[in-house]
Amino acid sequence: MTRHIWQAYVEEADHLRTHQDVKPIYAKRKETIERVFADAKEKHGMRWTTLRGLKKLSMQAMLTFAAINLKKMANWTWQGPKMA
Question: For the chain, which ranges sit under pLDDT 50?
Answer without folding.
Answer: none
